[in-house]
Amino acid sequence: MAVTEPGAAVLPAAHEGILRRQSLRESAARTYARSLPIVPVRARGLTIEGADGRRYLDCLSGAGTLALGHNHPVVLEAIKKVIDSGAPLHVLDLATPVKDAFTTELFATLPRQLADNARVQFCGPAGTDAVEAALKLVRTATGRSGLLSFTGAYHGMTAGALDASGGAQDVRVTRLPYPYDYRCPYGVGGERGAELSARWTENLLDDPKGGVPSPAGMILEPVQGEGGVIPAPDAWMRRMREITAQRSIPLIADEVQTGVGRTGAFWAVEHSGVVPDVMVLSKAIGGSLPLAVVVYRSDLDAWKPGAHAGTFRGNQLAMAAGAATLAYVRENRLAERAALLGARMLGQLQGLAADHPSIGNVRGRGLMIGIELVDPDAQEPSCTGVPPAAPALAAAVQQECLDRGLIVELGGRHAAVVRLLPPLTLTDEQATAVIDRLADALSAAERSLRHRPADRTAALTPDTITRKTP
Fold this sequence. Notes:
By secondary structure, the protein is α/β, with parallel strands linked by helices. The protein has helices at residues 14-25, 32-35, 61-64, 73-85, 97-109, 112-115, 127-142, 159-163, 190-206, 234-246, 316-331, 334-353, 391-403, 428-450, 453-458, and strands spanning 40-44, 47-50, 55-58, 118-122, 147-150, 174-176, 217-220, 223-224, 230-231, 251-254, 278-281, 293-297, 359-365, 368-373, 406-407, 409-411, 417-420.
């Protein structure tokens, strides 16, 4: 059988065969391929071209990996430079000029109070590998085993990361309430809801009969992504820092998706001024290639040589691409750009909600945006006093977006949050096109489900949507 060169033109009908073979050969665990049945053959910036000749605006961006979009020139040049130099591409954890340049650039972007006294651990190449390393690190450093995490969390797909995520079945981690303004577990929302969450945490840790021994660490996301794009209030973040510091509990910030300018600051913890003890980094730090690290206070560096390793922790191409990406974001002030453009897009989406009762809540930070869709005609509100989630509508919106050449992701507890993660290089014109297509898709999806009430009701269970569980 003839082999098609990467990026080569594919006959419009051929993509169907590629998709069919994927469904026959790949595992049932595949996710994005189910809701996004496209075959990318070329990409640049925000745009993907499929094998069928169609073009798409990509607001998934590799689940937030592509800070500069697809195939940015500075990334391609950095990769090409390493390849042309004849440098070894596989080096385990040996020192190289490429690694040294990456580490130097990374430390230049970190919160200064952490960078001045930090160590970095190169892990396996996925974010979940870095989470595992961080959990292992704090357990080793403290001699304790328990962990604190939060409802709605998503930290990865390996065993330890799943234990700390919101969908854990075999609970070995103490779960704390994450402040969720729209669906506040206390029914009050706002600052009061966040304060109650903090009080619960503090009381549980100090209660001698609370059943929670002193833990090895607390892991949290400054903005929950898979959980539904829920930004942690800055005051609450500072309370978590105070609570953990007073009790000598290492605070782990999972910045896998929020880092490298995504939220309008280089690192999302900077919004609150919090300096964590450990930061977990992946996705955008590799410039589109696999790379993950843990950065932590040097006094936590209690590992023995070889206590944590990984064959592919020395990814030279990813380090080169990552250093170029970090420098470009920093030098071109793309975090500030994300803050301004994200605020504008949030305002436009909130304006859209006035004409669409199915938009329950619009939220986000920078270019990490979520639109929670609800069923406004439901007879009974949810236990939090707001309309129940509408996963069927969200799935229909995603499909209508795809039909209009827009790629979006779904998230949230019931897969009812439409998520936007465009590259930080998004232009004003592209942002307008994204909002216009999304608005049109929402109207079309609402009309479609209005004419199929039976389908709408049947699809309101999370089991009808195949996705990762936060």
